[in-house]
Design a protein that fits this description.
Layout: H1 2-19, E1 21-27, H2 32-43, E2 46-52, H3 56-63, E3 73-77, E4 80-84, H4 88-97, E5 103-106, E6 125-129, E7 136-140
Parallel strand pairs: 1-2, 4-5
Antiparallel strand pairs: 1-3, 3-4, 5-6, 6-7
Length: 141
């Protein structure tokens, strides 16, 4: 009996760990697509804390986000900045690869991206920033 309990425990623990990856999402109080994105992340196993602030410019600056790559919201995950409506696949790649970047960004709130309405028109181009050079393509989703 004890062996069974232990086996169940061992099976469950990695999933519990994956289910509670913490994320902190900064948004201004009026942004609704930002709240929809927070729900999207929750639906993919992130434990999201939403912080509403009217000082988003300061948050982007702190995160090291270059001009033109700011999202309508900023999510901090494991020390990385995730700017905008970045699909979770790109976040998982970031967390797996652990590159020397400050973060990743999907600029421009594309239609059909997570938290946005509409229909996806083209692959989402996610950029990496804060590395050795200028921001460059990190992954397409
Ligand atoms: Cu948005």
């Amino acid at each position: 009996m004890r062996a069974v309990v232990l086996a169940v425990f061992v099976l469950l623990v990695p999933q519990l760990a994956a289910a509670t990856m913490p994320a902190t999402l900064y948004k201004d109080p009026w942004c609704e697509c930002c709240a929809a994105y927070a729900d999207y992340l929750r639906g993919h196993g992130f434990d999201v804390t939403v912080i509403e602030t009217e000082a988003m410019d300061a948050r982007h600056a702190e995160a090291g986000t270059p001009a033109g790559f700011e999202g309508c919201h900023l999510t901090m995950i494991e020390g990385y900045a995730v700017e905008g409506h970045v699909p979770v696949g790109a976040i998982r790649t970031l967390l797996d690869e652990h590159p020397a970047l400050a973060g990743i960004s999907l600029p421009g709130m594309p239609e059909g991206s997570p938290g946005m309405t509409g229909v996806k028109q083209a692959p989402f181009v996610v950029y990496g920033f804060g590395g050795a050079g200028e921001p460059e393509l990190y992954v397409t989703e």
